[in-house]
Design a protein that fits this description.
Its EC number is 3.4.23.36. One of its GO terms (cellular component) is plasma membrane. This protein specifically catalyzes the removal of signal peptides from prolipoproteins. It is an enzyme of class 3 (hydrolase). It is found in: Cell membrane. Helix 1 crosses helix 3 (97-119), helix 2 (73-93) runs antiparallel to helix 3 (97-119) and helix 3 (97-119) runs antiparallel to helix 4 (142-159). The chain is an alpha+beta fold. It has one domain. It has five helices and six strands. Strand 1 and strand 2 (55-61) form a beta hairpin. It starts with a helix and ends with a helix. The strands form two sheets. The chain has a four-stranded antiparallel sheet. The protein has a two-stranded antiparallel sheet with strand order 5-6.
Length: 189
């Protein structure tokens, strides 16, 4: 492997490590808070945190946001599996660390809720998600917050023209504009 190809792979390895670290921490945080909610709120009580703005209430949501598709949980689970795969592929293809961060948060949110759908299933992928953050109009969890932050971040990056990728793929390695000029000069000799 040439030094050029080796140096092109280092940033990808760094982004992969950042993706993995953020995703693992975010998934663990989500699952620990859900475990806490299952033990602390299983008696059915509601705990006020910020008056009527935020309360803690244990709810098992078989649907998506606001109970959407509650009778078709398996569709949501299949969509979450597909989304997780797409997010990993996108994270692998981006050359932007900022995109990597928000893609990892989106992955963590989708995967965190998918874990619930698998663990709490009584049939194939029909499990409910553990929600406990009661906003009055909706009840959610940490994975939902991660998905919301990721969504807002991605929209802002698009609006601010943060490039998803600034490299071209040549022979399976990132080929930046400097490398392209170097390759073009070498091919003319």
């Amino acid at each position: 492997m040439t030094q050029l190809a080796s140096s092109a792979r280092r940033p990808r390895a760094r982004r992969a490590a950042v993706f993995a670290c953020i995703a693992i921490v975010a998934i663990v945080l989500d699952q620990l808070t859900k475990l806490w909610a299952l033990t602390a709120l299983s008696d059915g009580r509601t705990v006020p945190v910020l008056g009527s703005l935020l309360r803690l209430t244990l709810v098992f949501n078989p649907g998506a946001s606001l109970g959407f598709l509650a009778s078709h949980t398996w569709i949501i689970a299949l969509f979450a599996i597909a989304a997780c795969i797409v997010l990993i592929v996108l994270a692998w293809r981006t050359t932007s660390m900022l995109w990597t961060v928000f893609l990892s948060l989106a992955f963590a949110g989708a995967f965190g809720n998918l874990i619930d759908r698998v663990i709490n299933a009584t049939d194939v992928l029909n499990g409910a998600v553990v929600d406990f953050l009661n906003y009055g109009w909706s009840v959610g969890n940490v994975a939902d917050i991660e998905l919301m932050v990721a969504g807002i971040g991605i929209v802002l990056m698009i609006l601010c023209n943060v490039k998803f990728s600034d490299a071209h793929e040549v022979n399976g390695t990132a080929d930046t504009s400097e490398q392209t000029q170097s390759n073009q000069a070498a091919s003319t000799k």
